[in-house]
Structures are given as structure tokens and as C-alpha cells.
Amino acid sequence: MCVIASSTQSPAAAGVGDLAVELEGITKRFPGVVANKDIAFSVRRGTVHAIVGENGAGKSTLMKILYGVQRPDEGSIKVNGQPVNLHTPADAIRAGIGMVFQHFMLADNLTILENVVLGAESMHGIGNAAREEIRRISDDYGLDVDADALVADLGVGARQRVEILKVLYRGAKILILDEPTAVLVPQEVDELFDNLRELKKEGLTVLFISHKLDEVLKVADSITVIRRGTTIDTVDPSSVNARQLAELMVGSELPSPSTEESTVTDRPVLRVSGLSLQGTEGRPLLDDISFTIHAGEVLGIAGVEGNGQAELVEVIMGMREPTSGQVVLEDTDISDWDVREIREAGVAYIPEDRQRHGLLLEAPLWENRILGHQTEAPNVRGPLINASGARADTERIVREYDVRTPSVYVTAASLSGGNQQKLIVGREMSHDPKVLVAAHPTRGVDVGAQASIWDLMRHARAKGLAVLLISADLEELIGLSDTIQVILRGRLTGPFDPDTVTSEELGAAMTGAAADTASTTDRPATGRPTGDTSHEGDHR
Ligand SMILES: Nc1ncnc2c1ncn2[C@@H]1O[C@H](COP(=O)(O)OP(=O)(O)OP(=O)(O)O)[C@@H](O)[C@H]1O
Questions:
Q1: Which residue would you say has higher pLDDT here, 450 or 316?
Q2: Given the CA of residue 62, which atom of ligand 1 is nearest to it?
Q3: N or C: more exposed end of the chain, with fewer CB within 10 A?
Q4: Ligand 1, atom 6, residue with closest C-alpha
């Protein structure tokens, strides 16, 4: 265990007037779980304060308490030195606390002005005063937002800035951001961090949750580590490195990453040729996509969200019919098979939206074990459901994948986001698949779980698994893939060699900015300046 100098600011040391938030003795229990236990730390005004911890450590619960979505069983909260009772988000907003969620909540068909004003005041008579206020906030904090632009036309980074602006418009002086960089390309991350620095310069306070420890170290002024519901320490970023921070989170030393060798064979397993999908507005969502994945190979697809990744997966998994093209598994054309047939033929699937497509949230974990594998052992015996087999195997997954849960009988909804993801990965890897289609397999999981999911994919690959890996995490793509392609407006660009390509080069190809730096023969038709991710619609 590393020894790290703590920079925990006691109220006396910082001067009470300097503290935006003080949490004392916060405890929150759910059935069978103590999500927060005697949490105590304070946040200085005008700083960026990060909260880190393993999946299920209790970060989201704590932020929900601070935003009035959950109520603590015990403990007290002070905002600007004053005790507050936060029973609802409206109470939090009144206390000057705003929250930007990971899933943006903007209406595509409305302008930024309408979205910002929506809910804050009547839509009637939205006028120049509101427009003027948006311009002022945008200018003051360098948000670069045009009040009259349509949200549908904005890229992911710009949407996030609108969400921040919405919170500022409601008068927030303390902003909570939940994993804000998970969906951003590197250039957008830098822009967001510039915005955060601007906010704190103006005296605002930012609290944010992140699993990306390098980023945390880059932007935070203080970092609070939570382990198993309790505050372990608040550290100064200059006194720790990412590895030490991860060790504080886990409570023990981490193993060193294993070295890897190529396992790619010459046996094609999944072949996709000339795949196109026409959108409703005539623009292709997928445009003549072809690739082959061999046994033992990981093909990584990088891209800004909304450029065809979701459609590509849907077509391969038989959820959507392509306008033209073929999908061939080993020697069989599966282009017109349905999801169930495709899964039974040996294609495992980790969906992008785990809550909508990967889990039945209100069902217990062991029933979720059966989901998508209703015809396979150990879930069935003959024509009947084998509940005890499914339960026992769920217990195995919980053990092997370190799913933090009181039992296999609780609902999937009660697991933390990262633990839900571990359950899905465990389920999908249980049937010895030939192909794994994995969309963002480690999104929202902590560094320890990420390392074990990566190890698992490497092992399966060494045994001949073919993997289609779609991810917004460039470190993951570079670390796991044998080949990387970039998807931009439904077209593939590449290949890129993961041993030589940099995150910046991939980021540029993803935004269509600088195909010159890419080792590519198939360039997007139009160039865009770096960091401009605005495309014509299709962003979620
Ligand atoms: N509504 C709920 N009902 C029951 N248990 C819950 C509920 N919300 C959270 N929990 C439990 O509380 C614990 C903390 O969960 P929380 O979501 O706060 O963790 P987290 O640190 O945000 O995790 P992650 O990084 O995976 O998002 C977990 O064990 C989780 O299963």
C-alpha cells in the first residue's frame, strides 16, 4: 500500500467561508447494502473536486443525495456554511446546486434557447431577455453556444455544453458532473476541461465523478477517494499518480499489466461485405461497409457517437435489415437471420445501452442470466426453465466477475452501473461464443474491473474468439485491438495500426479533421476543423 500525504482540508484550515460544500456523517442504506457509510469531506469554493472509487463504491448515491434525489438516513450537509435539507432537486437548485447527468436530456427538435428555458419558466414569451442571458453565460464561461441553433445539429461536446449552460441558467454555483468525459473524444475532453477551469476562475465549484484517473489528475484540485461506501482520503493530485490512486480505491496493490502477443489466425469468422443502410432522410446511415474478422482477432471501431456504430451493430445482430450487403458467419450467410438465431449460432452481444437492451431491470439477477440465452444450458433442462441451474451459474458469474451485490435475488436495477455491466459481460462470455460484438464493454466500470474484462477478452481471443469492439475509449481500442478502423458518417476509414497510431490521430480521423495524419486510403470526403463534431443529426 502506498503512503500518500493527505491534503484533507479541515473546515478550520480552509476557513469556513471558503467551503462550498461540507458533508458530515452521511449514511445511506438500501436493503442488504450500505451504499454510503459515514461519508465526510468538504469542497472548497472555486475548485474542481473529483470523486473516485470502484464500481459500487457509492459515488452516484452520494451525488444523488447532494442533488436531492436520494435522502440520507443520517448525516448533515452544509452549503456555503449553512445547513440545508435537500428533499428534492428543486431544494438543491434553490441551494445553488445543479447536476449534469451522463445521459443528456435535451429535446432534439427544439433550439438551445427553448431547451434551456424549458422547465425553468413558461415557454410562452421566450424572448430577448432569455436569449441575452444565454449569450452572457456563454460568453462569461467560454461555452461557445448559439441560442438559436437546433439541438439536432449539435455534436456530443456541444450538447454537453448546453446541459452545463442549462444548469448555470438556473443559477447553480455548484455543478455536479457524472462521468462527463465518458462520451467525449480527446479534443472534446480538453475543451471541457478548459470550460471547467473557466467556471472555477469565476468562483464556481465543480464536483465530478470519473473512472479515468489520468483525466482526474489533470483537471482536479482535490480528489476524494471512496471505498465500499466510506471516504478513504482526500488527496492533492500533485501527491499521487494514477496507479497510487487506483490502489487507494481498491485498498491493495494492483497487479502489473500482462504483456500480449498477437493471436490473429487466417481463419475468417465474421465477414461483412458492402453493408449499406439508408436513413429516412436519404442520407446513408451505413455506407458500403466491409471487413473481415479472423479467429483470434479484435477489430476495433472508433468513432464519435452517432456516426453509424449503433446501426452497424443492429444490422450484424439481426435487429435491422440492411439496404444491401451481406453478413457471413464462418461459411453461413446470416444476413436475414433474427437476433435469437444469430445468438444461438455463437455470436455474443454486449449492447451499448445496458439498461434498455442488456437487462430486465425489475427482474432478479438470476433471471437476467437467462435473458437472451433462453434455450441454452444451464438455463434450461429439456423444454423447461432450470431455475436452480441459472441461479447457481449466476452465483459463479458474481464470484468470477466480482459483481458487488448482496445476492442473486436482488433486481438488476439495484446494482450500480458498473456492476450491471460486469453481469452482462459474465453472461455473454459464459456460452463460449465464436464472435463477440461488444459495444463499449467497459463503459462505467472502474479500473480494476476494466483490467479484468480486458484480460478476459484477451484470453478468449487467444482461444480463437473473433471480437468486434466498438468503443469511445481510445485507450481501450489501442490496447485491445489488432486493427482499428474509424467510422465517420456511416463510412469506415482505415485501417490504423494500434501499435503506432496515437489518440490524437484517431481523434482527428473521428471528427473528420485531419485525415492527413492517418494511414488511410479511404478518406472522408469533407474535412472539418479539429474538435468540431457537429454532424447532420443522428447524435443521441
Ligand atoms: N436504488 C437502489 N436500491 C438498492 N441498492 C442500491 C440502489 N442504488 C444503489 N444501490 C447500491 O448501493 C451501492 C452503491 O451504488 P452506487 O451506484 O452509488 O455506486 P457507484 O460508486 O456510483 O458505482 P459505479 O461506478 O458502478 O456507477 C451498490 O452496492 C448498489 O448496488
A1: 316
A2: 18
A3: N
A4: 414
Range of the domain at 298: 255-346+433-534
- 269-314 pLDDT, tens digit each: 999 999 999 987 777 899 999 999 999 999 999 988 788 999 999 9
The residues lining ligand 1, judged by C-beta closer than 6 Å to any ligand atom, are 30, 33, 35, 53, 55-61, 404, 414-419, 444, 446
Return d(Cα 225, Cα 288) in angstroms, integer. Answer: 47
Looking at the DSSP bridge assignments, the partners of residue 208 are 50, 177
Nearest one of 195, 226, 228 to 50, comparing CA atoms: 226
H-run or E-run covering 187: helix 186-201
CATH of the domain at 212: 3.40.50.300
Give, for ligand 1, the residue of 416, 419, 421, 440 to mutate: max count of ligand atoms closer than 8 Å to Cβ. Answer: 416
Residue 416: which of 53, 92, 71, 67 has the closest Cα?
A: 53
**187 located within any domain:** no
> What ipTM was reported for this prediction?
0.98
Pocket test of ligand 1: the residue of 34, 59, 61 to mutate, having most ligand atoms within 8 Å of its CB, is: 61
User: Do 315 and 226 lie in a common domain?
Assistant: no
